[in-house]
Amino acid sequence: MAAKRTTKTHWGLSLLLTLAIAACQTQAPPQQVVDNEDAEEPVLISNCSPENDAKLTKTVDVLLDRGFTPRRTESFMQTASRLLYCPGEDTGWYRHFAERVPNYRREFFDFTGELIFDINTGRAYDYTDPVAVAKSLPACYASGEPYERCRPKYHPHYPIMLPKDKIADPNDPWNYAQACRLDANWKKFCSLATSMDACWSEAKSDMVIVPPTTKAQESRIQLARATRVDRMSDAAPAGPASEPAKASTPVKAKPKKVAKASTVPICHDLGWEYLLPK
User: Fold this and answer.
1) pTM: predicted TM-score of the whole model, two decimal places
2) Burial of 80 from C-beta contacts in 10 A (0-12 / 13-18 / 19+)
3) In the chain, % of residues over pLDDT 90
4) Helix (H) or strand (E) holding 33
């Protein structure tokens, strides 16, 4: 049974806000925050523009028409709406969602509310265009468990580290435009039910993700570049027994296409001896 997801978002939503806030600031005034001692989180007052509300309404249709469950759809929409200054049920997109799913009863927050990177390309999602994001989400996110249905190449949440000469803030050394790459151990881990923490949603506090060492990364790149060279014989086949062998021009072997080694760093391991089955 999959681990239960919490109704709160922490690191994942914070990173999404970091990625989108600059672009969104030009579209609408900042959201107003009202203190409420009884609330676990600040109450956001929507400054939703008609344009963004229309985008989000169309996004609801894209997800539901693609077969995303109501819970997966709403979880995605809650995050996308926050980033476009359109949170809350008193918005056009939410009323449209309620009309399309009239019997929906809100459940706990699902992993589709924490999506940061495309698991096939590693690129960060651009939430200023939620319709495009909704169209590009893998079909394996629609229903069922992602660890059973998805085969990720890149991490859904963890970015790569900037080169040392590009780090302006030592406390924020990450390149938020690109996810780190998964190796065989990571892919195996992301196929386990326990990976709902650290793969498909934010990691537990005792799981720290850092890039691999330079030496380890260079070794992986060299291994990926290694290719097998098949040698072809230039000896001509013998003719019939009654005729002398005919000389032939040696056939030049066509160069094999070698897959270009990825330069995207591999995600640091989490201690596979403890997390992967023996």
Assistant:
1) 0.68
2) buried
3) 46
4) strand 32-34
